[in-house]
Amino acid sequence: MKWTNYHSHTHFSDGKGAPELYIVSALEKGMYAYGFSCHSPVPFETGWNMKFEKLKDYLFEINRLKNNYKDSIKLYLSLEIDYVKDLIAIDQFQKYKLDYTIGAVHFLGFFEDGQVWDFDRSSAWFRRGLLELFDNDIRKLVQFYYQQVVDMAINYSPNLIAHFDLIKKYNSNNAFFDESEAWYKEIVFSCLEQLVKTDCILEVNTRGVLKKLNTEFYPSNFILKRCKELKIPLCLSADTHNPTDVMAYLPEARIVLKEIGYKEVYILDENGWNPTPID
């Protein structure tokens, strides 16, 4: 199999270490291609998005490395671009000539004190947003989250959709909701049916398992099964934040997909995004 990872963060955002360290690690593991996708700048303060003043240096460095390693590995330049309706979207970054785009939903509102609610910071932080922004109504929160994913996909069509069901990040032992309940599945499946109308690829993201927050990858296995029924294309991503993790749990994710019945995943090369066998 051609091992690839298109979701990766370096010290330009919230990753550890310089981009070249990730390339060295990818080469040691015999990877076919590697993509850099640091968190895009946003017009409010966060602890992990790239600062606007670092963006030029980031673009220059990745392009420099692409040239330096062109005979050793396929390297790609991207950003994980946050979607916040009427505030941030992928079109704002088109001028930077990215090789591909990753669309992500992390922010679902602002508190009265002006702080932005990035719902995946901690369990306690998740609970605060649920209480203050969604009246402690988990169905209302879940519906709103997946609607943002749909809006992003339909209106801006990123190449990849990051960690599709990130809303489950702090839901270990059904802390906030039960994924098996009919209402949750109805919302998720409705979202998937909208994504079929786009050219977006869903990533199978392994980071939640790596961090021991979840027992199944993003998306959960029942969602992957529905993706197969709907013929939604998938790719593998490690959502890497450390050079040692460039292939973290990708072989295990491949096994999950094979057990579900997948025979291919999508990779990016000079011919664009195309399926490649996972055997």
Structure description:
The protein has helices at residues 19-28, 52-68, 123-134, 138-156, 182-195, 207-210, 221-230, 250-260, and strands at residues 4-5, 33-39, 74-82, 102-104, 107-110, 116-118, 160-161, 201-205, 234-237, 264-269, 272-277. By secondary structure, the protein is an alpha/beta fold. It has a single domain, classed as Metal-dependent hydrolases (TIM Barrel). The longest helix is centred in the middle third of the chain and has 19 residues, at 138-156. The protein is globular.
Name some characteristics of this structure.
alpha/beta, 8 helices, 11 strands, globular
Task: List the topology elements.
Blueprint: E1 4-5, H1 19-28, E2 33-39, H2 52-68, E3 74-82, E4 102-104, E5 107-110, E6 116-118, H3 123-134, H4 138-156, E7 160-161, H5 182-195, E8 201-205, H6 207-210, H7 221-230, E9 234-237, H8 250-260, E10 264-269, E11 272-277
Helix pairs in contact: 4-5, 5-7
